[in-house]
Specification:
By secondary structure, the protein is α+β, with helices and mostly antiparallel strands. It has helices at 2-12, 41-45, 50-65; strands spanning 20-26, 29-35, 70-74. The chain has three helices and three strands, in the order αββααβ.
């Protein structure tokens, strides 16, 4: 999952070297914290959050196939 988020984010941003994904276990779910450069934040979130929602949907679909609960936080 972590690699999936990293690949998606790197494809969107101007500074792919600044993309980091941190995996944190909370209760019965996994939280993936996506960190990007400040100037790339708008590219990852998109207009009205559409790109962020799409990333979350893709990750949720992949997690469901593996019977896991995964959420994505963008910092």
């Amino acid at each position: 999952m972590q690699e999936l988020v990293k690949v998606l984010a790197k494809a969107l941003v101007e500074n792919p070297d600044a993309v980091e994904v941190e995996e944190v276990e909370e209760d019965s779910r996994t939280v993936l914290k996506l960190h990007v450069a400040q100037e790339d934040m708008g590219r990852v979130i998109g207009k009205q959050g559409r790109i962020a929602k799409a990333i979350r949907t893709i990750v949720k679909s992949a997690a469901t196939r593996e019977n896991k609960k995964v959420t994505v936080d963008i910092d």
